[in-house]
Specification:
Layout: E1 22-25, E2 31-36, E3 42-49, H1 61-68, H2 78-87, E4 91-93, E5 101-108, H3 112-124, H4 130-147, H5 151-164, H6 176-180, H7 184-194, E6 200-206, H8 210-219, E7 243-247, E8 253-261, H9 270-282, H10 287-295, E9 302-308, E10 313-322, H11 326-342, H12 347-364, H13 368-380, H14 387-397, H15 400-410, E11 417-422
Parallel strand pairs: 2-6, 7-11
Antiparallel strand pairs: 1-2, 3-5, 3-6, 4-5, 8-10, 8-11, 9-10
Helix pairs in contact: 1-7, 3-8, 9-14, 9-15, 10-11, 11-15
Length: about 425
């Protein structure tokens, strides 16, 4: 008989392998990474352009260009494009990331070749109409007004600006005047310079077939919009960390953000910091949650995370607390950082964190679309092919001493920026 009073034995996998993929090259040189997995007759097609903030010639032009791609071409209006995708049961999205502009299509396997001519038209003949740009600017300005009423949004905008600087692609914040300054010519210039065949990478995943590659080559591989190599430029970073408080006396909660600049995934300490961040505040059983939520009851939720971009990255801690608990919460956060620096984590706690992380790694490769996301990260960020295996092995083998060394290296109080948005703090 099964004894349900005893928990099952936890067995950590020896290794978690990245699924295999194939690399193709279209006639115009665009690389295609194919992940052939799954049983459902569905495919995901993602075209990625190095067309994000680091490659802008004017602030916010990258986001505006990406958003207006689907709003019409010289041959089809935005509504016609939407109707054509709906007719074939496909979806089109254009998520904008800090580094890249992405075009994502989900389609039934048998209909991918039907919508590729429409996709080609979008990538070849966008209209960027003045009317659509004005509507975009109006929407964004209204949304910005609403966002700036939220303490957590203001705190996040402030901490990233402090860490990187107000002129940095990863640090500048949108304002109404910047939106208003956008012109149609700005979008066309950004599109002509960055949405080119030599600045594009394609990821195809799902129940793929050789016919899909042939169709891609027929419609996307025949695009002839090539251009010069785009390069990213970054201004100097702020020199010293400090504390900033933005007073909003009519709010009952204060948004608290603390963080520091770190590095991208190419850095030798990234894998170790990934584990250390989980221990600090990266999952429900973390140090910050156990202390500030469970023990002290200052907040419902507190977290830490590594935000990693292609060229840089940062660590930040976030929470919203009652105004009377701001100073105590801040002190407890610094206390947890000090404990990580001064006392090695127990083997029992470390084993729990490792088990949790190995479980999340398994979800990263659970299915073709998730696997494609991981492969995309490795390809676009110029990581070695064994990066995922290195992350898994670092998680399995990292010691309490190594984590303590990383804490002393990167979690010093003097390196931490602090932002509070809410009622005045009581010291």
């Amino acid at each position: 008989m099964l004894d349900r009073k005893k928990a099952p034995v936890i067995r950590m996998p020896e290794d978690v392998q990245l699924p295999g993929y194939r690399r193709h090259q279209l006639d115009n040189g665009i690389p295609v990474y194919e992940v052939h997995l799954g049983t459902q007759e569905v495919v995901k097609l993602e075209l990625v352009f190095d067309a994000g903030r680091p490659f802008e010639h004017k602030q916010l032009v990258a986001r505006a260009t990406s958003s207006l791609l689907r709003e019409g071409t010289t041959r089809h209006s935005g509504s016609e494009i939407a109707e054509l995708f709906d007719f074939y049961g496909c979806s089109l999205s254009l998520p904008f990331n800090l580094d890249t502009a992405n075009v994502i299509v989900y389609s039934l396997s048998r209909y991918l070749d039907k919508i590729l001519p429409i996709l080609r038209d979008i990538l070849e003949n966008p209209s960027f109409s003045t009317a659509e740009l004005e509507a975009f600017v109006q929407r964004k300005r209204q949304l910005l007004k609403e966002d700036l009423t939220k303490n957590e949004v203001v705190a996040y905008r402030t901490i990233t600006e402090l860490i990187f600087g107000s002129k940095h692609p990863y640090g500048y914040n949108s304002v109404e005047e910047t939106y208003a300054a956008l012109k149609r010519e700005d979008l066309q210039q950004h599109f002509d310079r960055t949405y080119t065949t030599n600045n594009c990478t394609i990821f195809l995943s799902g129940k793929t077939t050789p016919a899909h590659i042939q169709s891609l080559n027929k419609y996307i591989g025949s695009l002839s919009r090539s251009g010069g190599n785009v390069s990213a430029k970054f201004p100097p970073l702020p020199a010293m960390a400090g504390a900033h408080f933005l007073e909003r006396p009519d709010t009952i909660q204060t948004a608290l953000r603390m963080g520091r600049k770190l590095f991208n995934r190419q850095h030798e300490d990234y894998c170790g910091m990934y584990v250390l961040n989980a221990l600090l505040g990266g999952y429900f059983g973390s140090r910050l949650m156990a202390n500030i939520r469970e023990d002290k009851g200052y907040t419902y939720h507190i977290f830490s995370q590594l935000d990693v971009m292609k060229f840089d990255g940062y660590l930040y801690i976030g929470t919203e607390v009652g105004n009377e608990f701001v100073t105590a919460t801040r002190d407890e956060i610094y206390k947890e950082l000090a404990i990580l620096r001064n006392k090695a984590v127990s083997e029992q706690e470390l084993e729990m964190v490792k088990n949790y992380l190995i479980g999340t790694y398994l979800t990263m490769i659970d299915g073709p679309f998730q696997a494609s996301e991981l492969i995309k990260t490795i390809v676009l960020e110029d990581l070695p092919e064994d990066f995922f295996s290195k992350l898994v092995q670092t998680t399995r083998k990292i010691t309490a001493k190594q984590l303590q060394e990383l804490a002393n290296k990167y979690l010093q109080e003097g390196d931490i920026w602090q932002v509070s948005v809410g009622a005045p703090m009581k010291n």
